[in-house]
Amino acid sequence: MNDSGIRALMECLPLFWWETDERSHMAEWGGGAFADPSAARRFLDRARQETSVPGSPLDEPHRVVRFDGRTFQVHWPAGEHPGLGRARGIAVETGAQPAAGRRSAAFAEFADLAPAAAFLRDRDGRYLWANHSYAHLYGTTPERIVGRRIEDFDTPADAAQFRALDQEILSQGRPVRHHLSYHRKDGGTGQAAGHRFPVQENGETCVAGIYVDITEHARAMDQRREAEESLKALRDHSGLPCALLSADGRIEQAGTATAELFRSRLSDLIGRRARTLIADTSDLRPLHRAWEGLISRRIRRAETSAVLLDTLGRQRRARLHLAAVSGPAGHVSHVWAVVTHQSVAHEPHPPLTAAQIRILSLLAGGSTNGEIAASLGLSRQTVDYHLSRLREQLGAATRPALAARAYVLGILDPRAWPPRPATTS
Predict the structure, then answer these.
(1) Which whole-number Å values give the CA distances from 271 to 125, 254, 333, 387, in the listed order?
(2) In what order do the strands lie in the sheet with 332-340?
(3) SS3 for 337?
(4) What counts of helices (H) and strands (E) characterise the chain?
(5) Which residues contact 87 (CB under 8 A, 6 or more apart)?
(6) Peptide bond into 418 cis (omega under 30)
(7) How far is CA 20 from CA 17, 44, 48, 90, in A?
(8) Alpha helices in 303-352 (DSSP H)
(9) Which residues does 165 contact at the CB level (< 8 Å), separation at least 6?
């Protein structure tokens, strides 16, 4: 093994090695016992003090040095001394295990560079190991976490919560999935989801954990829930019948106004094919074209008309506003349908001919029978006959009543002037 290999190995061991220059300044150092140079320098100063006691033989090969509650065996070559000029030495922590992360080798090797935050703590809340993702949550490095306790990093409330979770694992002796909140360094509240589980370390049951920060995901889910609640409130309280249709035309969501429109229970509408709620009239072609255009993504929205059929068999013409909803990979997964400009519900009547609808349009515009006959190139007797038949079919006794019925039954478009058929708008 070359020098770099030896040094890398010592970084994983609970020891400290050093070399000092002529002025007794630490020139090089390494090992896994100390995470930062300041701790290493303080230890070397302590080693110099304890080995500079009057009467200490300079050729003594080792000496016990206690530092920050830890015990080290200090070794140096014969003839050298940690307090005199150029010197080399090594200090080995007694009773210590290999460097953090090596005690649970399989777990540590797997989780050390994982994006999920992972840790290992003893039953006193002292960190035995932490990976880089966990240390990043606290803006530090794993080396600065190991050996310290929960309270050194978290607020009292969070620390109490985490200790309680640790005790739950220790008492039950089995893995537990948790979803917890914690205070972030920026002052905000974070969310994390993961598992805590018991592990055996040197005959002692400890607690290991691995968690994923789901703060942004939780925030996005909260925003989605808020949006869904707002949409539901709008859907249920706007008074507009609306429904979310699947790409194959089944109703997946609907508002209370939709159930009222079709004289049905809302639960009976869900899963039903929308086609069964539309009367089979001769003017369905525009609706079919609109639907095909939406599903194929040729258009994003469409407006057309259709005759709706309720559970009592009554009909009403209405405007349909359709909008495509994109799903995965850009495909259209759903279509929102909103109903406006409903006619009154009525019993089905025989379909009107194009000539009859044109006569109603001219009648509603104020034309006399003679003017209607001249406009359409018909005889006066033919127009009189058509008007008589229309009064029977639509249940209207007079010319004004016939015009009014044409509007409330959705035959004429209430938004247009001069009057025109609703099916062509």
Answers:
(1) 54, 10, 15, 43
(2) 251-254, 242-246, 332-340, 315-326, 301-309
(3) strand
(4) 14, 15
(5) 19, 20, 24, 76, 80, 81
(6) yes
(7) 10, 10, 12, 12
(8) none
(9) 176, 178, 180, 196
**Closest C-alpha to 318, from 362, 371, 258:** 258
Distances (CA, A) of 27 to 22, 23, 30, 85, 192: 10, 10, 11, 11, 44
Cβ–Cβ under 8 Å, residues 26 and 44? yes
User: What's the angle, vertex CA 395, arms to CA 393 and CA 396, rounded to 5?
Assistant: 115
Q: Which amino acid is at 125?
A: G
CA angle 96, 101, 103 (to 5 degrees): 55
pLDDT in tens, the chain (425 residues): 345 556 665 666 778 888 888 777 888 888 878 877 788 888 888 887 776 544 444 445 457 888 887 888 887 765 566 556 677 888 888 765 544 444 455 556 667 777 889 999 999 999 999 998 899 888 899 889 999 999 999 989 899 999 999 999 999 888 888 888 877 776 778 888 888 999 887 778 899 998 988 878 878 888 888 887 887 777 777 788 999 999 999 999 998 899 989 999 989 999 999 999 998 877 788 899 999 999 999 999 999 888 898 888 888 888 899 999 988 777 899 999 999 888 777 777 777 888 888 888 888 888 888 888 888 888 888 888 888 888 888 888 888 888 888 887 778 888 778 888 877 54
CB 362 within 8 A of CB 373: no
Specify whether the CB–CB gap between 358 and 387 falls below 8 A: no
Q: For residue 93, give Cα distances in angstroms to 14, 34, 55, 68, 73.
A: 6, 11, 25, 12, 6
In single-letter form, the type of residue at position 363 comes to L
SS3 149: strand
End-to-end CA distance of the chain: 87
Nearest to 409 by CA among 314, 338, 290: 314
Q: Where are the alpha helices (DSSP H) in 149-194?
A: 156-172
Give the angle subtended at the CA of 135 by the CAs of 131 and 141, to the nearest 5°.
Answer: 90
Amino acid at 174: R
Query: Would the pTM count as exceeding 0.70?
Result: no
Distance, in Å, from the CA atom of 120 to the CA atom of 201, rounded to the nearest integer, reads 10
Cα atoms found within 13 Å of the Cα of residue 160, Cβ hemisphere only: 3
Give the C-alpha separation, 392 to 389, whole Å: 5
